[in-house]
Amino acid sequence: MAKPLIMVVDDEVDVANAIANTIKDTDQCDVVVANSATEAIGHLNKNKLFFGLGGNKIRLIFLDIKMPEMDGLTFLEKVRKDFGEDIGISMLTAWEDADKWDKATSGFVVNYIKKPFKAEELLETITKFFEGKEGKMVLETFEKHIKKREEFKEGNDQ
């Protein structure tokens, strides 16, 4: 049986490779790396499944926000519009503010991981996702967003 396919999208080559190697070291998933949103769209198009209901071989994406050409949040919107909601997306970024959380959670992300990433959090995201807990993960991420929104509001009030 083929291993699930995960895509890492990050313009920082060293970071993308570190994430990919962390995933590869588990020997449970195959990984493809894209260093731009344009390259990532190419990988999504190459991995479309044409039989039955469609879908994509890429099941989960770890996505950076700050990238040239097209940022991660715009890419997230494009994936949801062009490829649907069956591809899990986890933000993995150094950028965190109320607006980014709003846009990410409106795209039904399964997690929002801050860089520098912790291997345990990355691998836990993968495990939960492939155990079929995607819906619960989206809800938990939205709940984290609500808590973060309060933190951002408190920070602005001071």
TrEMBL record:
> SUPFAM superfamilies under this entry?
CheY-like (SSF52172)
Please provide an example of a Pfam family that matches this protein in its UniProt record.
Response_reg
Q: Which PROSITE patterns match?
A: RESPONSE_REGULATORY
**In its keyword annotation, does this UniProt entry include Plastid?**
no
Highest taxon listed in the record's lineage: Bacteria
Keywords on record: Phosphoprotein
Q: Which GO terms describe its biological process?
A: phosphorelay signal transduction system
Matching Gene3D superfamilies, A to Z?
3.40.50.2300
Which residues does the record list as 4-aspartylphosphate (modified residue)?
D64
Q: Which residues form the Response regulatory domain?
A: 5-130
Phosphoprotein listed as a keyword: yes
Name-wise, this protein is Response regulatory domain-containing protein
The species this protein belongs to is: candidate division WOR-1 bacterium RIFOXYC2_FULL_41_25
State the taxonomy lineage: Bacteria, Bacillati, Saganbacteria
